[in-house]
Amino acid sequence: MKRILNTILLIGILSGVFVSCDSDDVGGNLYTFTGEMVGQYLQNDTVQFSEFVRLLDTTNVMGLLNSYGSYTCFAPTNDAMHAFYKEKGKNSLSDFSLDSLQVIAYDHIIDGAVVLYSNFIDGRIPEITMSDRNITIHFTDSVTWVNYDEAKGNENAYIINKDVVKHNGVLHVISKVLNPSREGIVEAIAKETDFSIFYQALIETGMADSLLKIEDETYDKTEYAYLITKTLDDGSWYYEDIPDARRYRYTVLMESNETMNANNIYNIEDLKTYAAGIYDEVYPEDANVREITDRHNSLNRFIAYHLIDKQLSKFTFIDAYDTDHMIRTPGRDMYEYVETMCPNTLIEVKKERATGTTNIFNYLPETGDALYLSDTFYDKTTTNGIYHEIDGMLVYSKQVDNMLSSKRLRFDAASFFPELTNNNMRGSRYKQNTTSSLYDTPDLKYQIPRNYIARITSSEQTVVQYLTPYYKYQDYEGDEIFLTASTGKLYDFSIITPPIPAGTYEIRFGYLTNGKRGVAQLYFDNIPCGVPLNLNKSAVDNGWEEPGSDSSDPYGYDNDKYMSNLGYMKAPACFKVIKADWTSGENARYCNAAIRKILGTFTFSEAGHHVFAIKGLSGGEFMFDYMEFVPTSALESEDIY
Q: Where are the domains of the chain?
């Protein structure tokens, strides 16, 4: 209810932030509606929806669906409603409490977005329902399932009629009432009897206590309405919004008892022995830590390496960021690096272009070993997270550590911050950047309140934005972190990086130049990275030549060396602008505005986080696209991608 009240208040403050499907503006804040509303359509079809209408009337939601706004409604039929009553041991709607009826109603409505069938992905719809739940879509040859559960088979809900477009939204008629889990992630895993060994270790190590948070109740979106300077109704190429909430979410990767047994693990004592065999080699200094609740203990590390403080569905491990900005030809494999709750460790997620295989975890080139999500047990959604079965033993072994510390690690800027994933910002505009008819949909810029992101520290005058992917951006994965300062002020902020393995690295910062950027001093771990960086200068001003423009250097390799001596690099050739407009080039390597600044060479004696800090020295903007950590041993063999 807090969420609904906040939404109503915000609409009052920001009239016109959301646009209706066909609103008729007659001046000021007054609107007249000339078409049938979502609510009216339901009320007029008593044969199909009289029970659902009764639910909406009882909970006072019907008024919302008959008002100005943008709504998506998954509408169960009368047969579906009656079947739900029977399933719950009830005779009618009146047998339910009002609180439970409100939850049921909210489960079926997305407020603030019109999600057409063409926007569906095989996986979780980014937009959340009024009850703070994601709706999952699963396509088969003949049926589109909603919130599909393998165990239920044909008992799942499916779409009977799609895209019933009305004046203020769209309806999808469904065969069954949606009833998502209300359990926390630990409670849900407790009931998975095929994973009892993992669950026992999760509890006994105390790591289950790290998976309990749901939401920051002190966050109130309405307090930040002043940050909005451009609404969707303004008709610009972009509009602004504020995060709806500050949710905490988790992902758990689990081995089944069957997988454990295949590795001679039949109980928690066997798992302790197995974990010690892996982690005592990686952390020999902690080999004698016996207390399993100690974060340095081998079993504790084993369990913690399976836990992630981001909610990552099968789609959002990596596929959600594979927009049309990415070059998808063979050899341009895509990588994502995910931090785990095991201190200072990463999981590599690979997408292989040649085979189209996705979600390849910790691939070891020497042996070809890798892990994958189960084909049948994945995307198990709970109140505060999601869990999946992994098909082998997931460990941060010496081999994995060596693999990660000997290759280029490229992080998209948005991947640094769990808040962007957990609150439906990162990965939410996939369809707009993979469907040509949706390319020119106005871009969504999130105004990020100060202290909303734990790993960004900023001065009061610094304004932080997350720019979702847009077809005119020449950005890696299409998105960027964008900063400005309030009028007459200078930005000043610092960012904590993901953990980097021990070693010596060349570190680079990827950005896009234009005439509005200004000058800034960059620091890494409090060390100034050379002289102040003029972000207004194009790549040409920093030695860039278009590859092929010099017949004596057809691939631009000599020019690469020249730029490197100046402290710069061309952008990698693995991404591009979808539509040449503000910038051009067949890929970012050919773009005279895309550039990498070499921050310097740094040696880390142990794995850990680091601090990237920026102080503005003149007015202007700052954009942060990606960051690279390249072991010096890999520099000579590094490719252009």
A: 35-174, 186-213+248-404, 410-634
Q: How far is CA 152 from CA 145, 192, 314, in A?
A: 11, 15, 19
Share of the chain residues as helix, strand and coil, in percent rounded to the nearest 5: 30, 25, 45
What DSSP character marks residue 152? G
| Helix (H), strand (E), coil (C) string for 161-173 | EEEEEECCEEEEE
pLDDT at residue 34, rounded to an integer: 52
DSSP letters of 292-327?
Answer: TTSTTSHHHHHHHTTEESS---TTTTTGGG--TTB-
* CA atoms of 135 and 148, how far apart (whole Å): 9
Residue 255 has a CB neighbour count (10 Å cut-off) of 23
DSSP 497: P
Strands 134-139 and 144-146: antiparallel
Q: Are 397 and 305 in contact (CB under 8 A)?
A: no
Domains 35-174 and 186-213+248-404 share a fold: yes
The rounded distance, in Å, linking the Cα atoms of 83 and 179 is 12
Amino acid residing at 578: I
Q: What is the pLDDT of residue 4?
A: 46
Query: Residue 272 has what DSSP assignment?
Result: H
What residues contact residue 30 under an 8 Å CB cut-off, 6+ apart? Answer: none
CB 633 within 8 A of CB 406: yes
- Strands 380-382 and 144-146, by their bridges, are unpaired
Four-way CATH pick for 35-174: 2.60.120.1690, 2.30.180.10, 3.50.50.60, 3.40.50.1970: 2.30.180.10
Domain 186-213+248-404 has CATH 3.30.70.100: no
Task: Please identify every stretch of the chain with a pLDDT value under 50, giving residue numbers as ranges.
Answer: 1-33
Helix (H, G, I), strand (E, B) or coil at 290: coil
CA nearest to 532, candidates 631, 632, 622? 622
C-beta neighbour count of 89 within 10 angstroms: 7
410-634 belongs to which homologous superfamily? Galactose-binding domain-like (2.60.120.260)
